[in-house]
Amino acid sequence: MKVLGKVVFLLLLGGIWCHNNRNAKASGKSTKKSGGNQGGDADQPPPVVDLTAGAAGSIGSTRGTESSGSTGSSGSTRGTGSSGTSGSTGSSGSTRSSGTSGTSGSSGTSWTSGSSGSTRGTGSSGTSGSTGSTRGTGSSGTSGSSGTSGSTRGTGSTRGTGRSGSSGSTKGAGGTAEAGREGAAGARAAEKQTDDMRLHFLKNNQVTCNDGTAAGFYLKEFRGSRRWLLFLEGGWCCHSKDTCDSRYQNIPRLMSSSGWPQTKRGTGILSSQAQENPHWHNANIVFIPYCSSDVWSGTGVAPTPPPRLRQGKEKERDRNTNATEYTFMGSLIIREVVKDLVPKGIKQAKVVMLSGTSAGGTGVLLNIERVASQLEQLGAEAQVRGLVDSGWFLESKQQRSPNCPETISCSPEDAIKIGLRLWNGVVPDRCRQLHKRGEEWQCFFGHKLYSTLSSPLFVVQWLFDEEQLRVENIYMGGRSLSEEQWQYIQNLGRELKISLRDVTAVFAPSCLSHTVITRSNWMSFQIKGTSLPRALHCWDRSLEATRNNRTPAKGCPFHLVDTCQWPQCNPTCPALVDQTTQQELTLLQMLVAMGLDLQKLGLDPQEDAGSLASVVSNGG
């Protein structure tokens, strides 16, 4: 038994010796493969894949001189600070920390890194680096790219100022989270800069604003796009010396370019943001400021005497004695803008949409045929379309003095009759031929002009347009409203519906407002569940289908007119605001605030509120 016991003991010793010998050889091979690490533990467990952000990954010695950051190996660790190391288990590697906490060593095989080299972190964390020595002197070391090997190097060391380790990426070159955030912020800043439209003055300096300053346009190019959106600003007009003097004193930007900024940010359909402008954000956008006061119809100065540019007190004195000091060149400005856009690529356009609001919308009606003809003469094959927003006016019902001492007391037709002579204004040829001399003013009204135009038009018109009401001396939210004025308001909605009956493409909500396409919230207004941008897109698709001899898609409407009779019966209408208190009111509340007796008018607040709710629930 003693002999047998000795034999068993010898066999056990031999087995242990062989086992240790094999482990030593394996450890030697592992040491060679890992770059000759020393001091490792022969019985270290297998590596653990670390998918955390900022995980350490370079194989080699990692030294941390302050607090620990990202995870590393669980090899031999010496901590001289208050805490030991933390991190994922990896291949053997000696880690020494001399700060408040021991840093984590490197993990052997990690999906978040793969390069070899010494990484030294002198900040609060040493994270993975690409091949070669990477030194982090800030609060976080660099985050290397995944899978780099050999002599490949990352994007360089990155300094950080935060406490935490940087976020690593599984692919591509890395950087600290701070650097990533700074880069993203820089990209956003650059994007905001490119969203701006930049001012360009006309090359032809003979075509000017009212006061002789240079006319121009703002342009935001979208490289590669063959769609162009030209926008005419609104602002009504002046038609005599007195009205133009008053306009120049009170709203000089509508008569002079001297105060125009170098850049302008577009909103609504002029926005470059897809979320605000889903179908036209990627077009070349041109904003043409209104400085001619002629509803974009003028073709030159008043006949006599010829104008000359003046400065300072001389100009001020002469303007008070000579109405012809002003030049009216609205139509010529549009012509020159198109010329100046030729080097920008408008000749290669597929679609050119001439748009405008208020007087700019009327300007679209007056100039769309000229723009189409001009582009055709330049050799362009673009289809020219028109978008008229709140420029579809009706003649006034009031009898007033035809002399029009003030713009505000002048009916639209009287202002235009007088202004046409001063502006040397022009109207589309086919419409002009339908009217005798002196009656050309009728071509400023869309319902009389529309049928003579050959270019496609989309009309956007609030059924209770505030500017249409203003010329009748009706101010919603003002101090008072008579029964006759309330009756006029109701009749206006009915008459506008009739005038729009034969318009192919139209969006007419039953609301009290003025202009819409340049509002940031223009997508929120709907008729029977269809928004204005959606209706415009449907119209666009229909025109493209027609050009390509295809059948237009069904279920995509673009003739949308509210059927309810009340102002504000559409639930998506802009809110009514009391001009005195600036509080939002319902229609009935506003009528009461303006002095109307609802019961005398046959309006029961309770009953009519219920009928309004019924209209709203039925979608207008």
From TrEMBL:
<dbReference type="GO" id="GO:1990699">
    <property type="term" value="F:palmitoleyl hydrolase activity"/>
</dbReference>
<feature type="compositionally biased region" description="Low complexity">
    <location>
        <begin position="58"/>
        <end position="156"/>
    </location>
</feature>
<dbReference type="InterPro" id="IPR004963">
    <property type="entry name" value="PAE/NOTUM"/>
</dbReference>
<feature type="region of interest" description="Disordered">
    <location>
        <begin position="299"/>
        <end position="318"/>
    </location>
</feature>
<dbReference type="GO" id="GO:0090090">
    <property type="term" value="P:negative regulation of canonical Wnt signaling pathway"/>
</dbReference>
<feature type="signal peptide">
    <location>
        <begin position="1"/>
        <end position="18"/>
    </location>
</feature>
<keyword id="KW-0732">Signal</keyword>
<protein>
    <recommendedName>
        <fullName>Carboxylesterase notum2-like</fullName>
    </recommendedName>
</protein>
<dbReference type="Pfam" id="PF03283">
    <property type="entry name" value="PAE"/>
</dbReference>
<comment type="similarity">
    <text>Belongs to the pectinacetylesterase family. Notum subfamily.</text>
</comment>
<feature type="region of interest" description="Disordered">
    <location>
        <begin position="22"/>
        <end position="192"/>
    </location>
</feature>
<feature type="compositionally biased region" description="Low complexity">
    <location>
        <begin position="178"/>
        <end position="188"/>
    </location>
</feature>
<feature type="compositionally biased region" description="Gly residues">
    <location>
        <begin position="157"/>
        <end position="177"/>
    </location>
</feature>
